[in-house]
Every structure is written in structure tokens, then in C-alpha cells.
């Protein structure tokens, strides 16, 4: 790809003149110019620790009347130090920015700017995604005039009871920090606060600075020192001695401990510390969606994915564990099996955010994952899990690895459509180097369940699946952000036809930027995942697969995804079977631009192995016998939740939605 797009590090003439200004002096800038200068001045230590690079990789922008004159002009002036990337959809470009930060383990990030109306409200879904996943993104939507002189302006949302409300107020519930800049001087406080939230492990999430268009253009005398280049410090709490002591006390009592590795392991760069800790004490490790890749897939103590989309090895160990060390996870329902999977175990929760650590009534160690694991190591020297427990974990993990190999290498039967597991196997076999070179990107539907079980993540960052918000449409836009962050890696976007149809415009952006993606579209002709869940809850197939939807006289469309992708500028083809898919993947890897491959898949078939109960409420009253039967199973499971010993073989819907 064009390396200049997000990696240029030149100094502009404006910065040169700024550097010559007298100490303690001021410089007259518009609010927009000051904001852009400040962002461009923030630095971060490189991954090898040998230098620095910009904290902000660039700004995704779609201009409109609320940001083109003010912020647009400022971005043009600083386009070398802070590159501006033009996208095709506001929600999509925010997804790309979020994925960029996740691929950098939250150590680098991007900003996003939109106009005041639909552009701003298009950010709400992406902001919610970043909020749920604890990922940094700076949102800079334009806003209405502070002066109110021309009200109501084009695209203004008027509140009949509060004249100060604008469309941007919709972003308040999904922002970790929100501010509306009504005077340029406010930036002196708002920008450092925003930066603290974006770089704080406990606070991390989306920040919104709403920018009224008249204020963007307003000038003020800013202190020169405000724009001095600064190397950013990332904040994460160090463990407290009393909390470490309490955690050690509980762990020493454990005979059958299990580590649950969450996203905090990756963001805290704690993968090596986790591996050493698990090996030293003989503790098996199970991974959440966000934490997959914390431990190499072939590590003898890696029991695989945990929870509703988990492996049988991890589920068996979680069910029998007497203590769970939850590291960097918020323990959402897919991880805990709706709080049925390890109810018999005490939970010790290491988390930078105490709010997350308190989940599942855990004993909290409020700390960075790496620092906490290292602090636990010395006082726990000589302590080891029960030897039979460690041996059982080794056996279960090895058995699951063999099962994964079998599932992903099954030959395709004639006249039988492949399913997601078959496609995952074909993708991983196609990598000529090593599976660790690929980064797989996905978000919603059946694929995250199958990838969680079957994808072999050999290193941190090889598995990039957004499942905290399970947001359809993230996949291709997220893949673009990952590729911008990791241009030397092959980025494989795996996406269902439903998500592809929701948001695919950033294929065109990837072609424009030279940020090559390999996109594999699994076409099961509808929302196959929810169709299965619907039937597992006793419902009739309805409004999910195209065949079961209301249709006009021409029937459901026959969608040619390859032709559509070619229309967006990509190379593309349709594979009729797995053999053709593998050949197409080789062509895709050799191609110079984004390559899209579609393949028809079975909407009904999934991996039978693994999984756990997930609570989905079934109607208490129905005229349908199948719904009443599903409700009876649901009631039985609710009763069983109060009796943990009865949950070894959970009943009820385990379909992965």
C-alpha cells in the first residue's frame, strides 16, 4: 500500500515557524487549526522502543457544511503530519479507525470527523462498539452554530424543550468523554482530558468533541507551548500489595484453577507474562473472543475458546475449576454461559477497570494485566495446580487440537455445500508462509463462533473479531483499519452475505488507498445464524433466510457478490467449491489489490463440538407447540442455574447468534 498515507512523519513549514517562536509566546489560530496542531504534535514510543511515531495515524473525514470550511481547511494545512483519509460511509470509517487502534493494541489511534447531521448520527453505532470493546477513537463531529443566529440550519435536529441540544447529544451515552467546544480556549482543557481518556487503560473508549462550525473558524491566541511535541504516557494502574496478597491467598487454596484470558491480556502486552505464569503453575488457559491469541494455539495449556462459542476442553475445565483467574475480561454472557459455566468457582479478577473486575462477584486486583501477573509470580513460587488437573488439561487441549485439525480438513462431499469450518480450513491452508502471518477479521453471525473454536491464532493480534457489540457491517471496514495499521500482513476478512450487504463501501476505499484486503464472502442466502437460533427457541423459519421473507412477484434476488465487488474496483470471483476456493485464495494472495471471493455455504450446518447454554428468553405463552416445548426447556435451565452441579450437560439453545 501507499506508505505515505498513514506513516508520513514530515514537519511542516508551520511547525518550523512555531518552533522559532519565543518561549511563553502565543500564536493566533482558529479552533480547528489549534485542534489539528495539537493532535499532530502527540507522539508515542515505537513498538521496538527505539524511537517515536505519531500517536494519531490520521483522520478519517467525510466533509459537509459543518466541518469542511473550518476543520477541512486545518486538515489541509497539516495533511503531511496528520494525513486525511476520505471514506464512503461515516459509520464505516469510524469502524476502520477503531480497528486501527485495536490492531495497535490501543497504542496508536485515529480521529474521525463528520458534518452536523446524518454524518454525526451515523457515528453512534460505531461509538457504541468502541465503548463496549474499550477501544480508543476520537470523534470530531461538526455541530450547529453557538451564536444561534442562523438557526435552524440545514440538518439541525431541534429539541422543543432545550435549545442547546443538537444531534451530537445522541453520542453522549456512548462516549467515555463528551465535550462541546463553544470557545477556542476550551481546547486547552478539553484536549488533554480527551487524550487522558484515550490512553487510560481503565477509561479507554470513544471521546467526542462536538465542534460548532462557527467556533471552528473562530481565532484565539494560543500558548505556543500547548503545541510542543510530546511523547504520550499510557496509564494503567499498578497492583496494590493488599490485593495481590488476597489473590495469592485464594490461589494457594485452589487445586483446580483456570485462567480466563481476555482482551486486557493483549492490550496490556501481557501474553509472555501469561505464558510464563500458566507454565510455572500448571494452569490451563481458556480464551474469550477478545482474548484469543493471548496464548499460541498449540501451547499445551491452551484449552481453546471459552463459553457459548467455546471448545469442549475449555468448557469441561471451566465447569470443574474451583478457582478462575479472570485476566482482562469483563465476563460477558458468551464467556460465562449466561452465568452458568463456572458458578462453583471463586473468581479472582485482574482488570485495569474495577467496574469490569467486579463482574461475577470477583475478588478484584485492579491493575494492568502484565504488572499483576508479574507481581503474583514471586509470592506464588512453588505453588502448583493439582498435578492430575494439569495432566487432564494437557490431554483435553491436545484432543481438541486434533479435533480442530479433523474439522478443518474434512473433504467436501459431492452435492453438499461447505460450512464455515470448511472455509476456515481452506483459508488457513492457503497461507504459504505461516498461519501467524495472517490476520483474520470478522464480527457477527455464525462466523465468530466457528472462528473462535477453529482459527489457529499463533500470536497476539492474529485474531481480530469484534464480538463485544457483535456489529454486522464491521468486517470490511474493520479490515481496512487493520490493514492500515499492519500493512505488511495479509488481512483476511471473513464475512457473511448479510453483513456484506449491510456495509461494503470501504472495499472502494481500500482500492483507493492501495490497502489490499482478501475478502471471503460466505453466502448462505440470509441471516443463517439467527434463523437457527429462531428455530432453537421454537420459532418457525421467518424473515431471516431470503427464502422465508416477504417477496414480490420476482422473488428473492440472486446476488452476484463477485460482480458487485468488481464494480467497487476490486478483483473478484465466485468459487463453486472448496477446491476452487483454495485456488482462488492463491490468486488473491498474489494480487496487488483487494480481492473478493464468494462461495455458497450451508445455512444449517455448524460445528457440533463445544458450545454452552446461552440465555435467550422464550415466550411464556404461545399457540405453537414448538415454542411451548422450548419454553419448558428454558424454564428447566433457569431452575438448574441455581444448582450448578446439574449444568454439566446444559440443555437449551446453544446456537451462536
TrEMBL record:
Keywords from the UniProt entry: Thiamine pyrophosphate
InterPro entries: DHS-like_NAD/FAD-binding_dom, Myo_inos_IolD, THDP-binding, Thiamin_PyroP_enz_cen_dom, Thiamin_PyroP_enz_TPP-bd_dom, TPP-bd_CS, TPP_enz, TPP_enzyme_TPP-bd
Record domain Thiamine pyrophosphate enzyme TPP-binding: where: 444-598
Gene3D superfamilies named among the record's database cross-references: 3.40.50.970, TPP-binding domain
Pfam families reported in the protein's UniProt record: TPP_enzyme_C (PF02775), TPP_enzyme_M (PF00205), TPP_enzyme_N (PF02776)
Annotated CDD domains: TPP_PYR_POX_like (cd07035)
Domain spans labelled Thiamine pyrophosphate enzyme central: 244-376
Segments forming domain Thiamine pyrophosphate enzyme N-terminal TPP-binding: 59-155
Family (UniProt): Belongs to the TPP enzyme family.
Alphabetical list of NCBIfam families matching this protein: myo_inos_iolD
Identification of the protein by name: 3D-(3,5/4)-trihydroxycyclohexane-1,2-dione acylhydrolase (Decyclizing)
Gene source species: Paraburkholderia ginsengiterrae
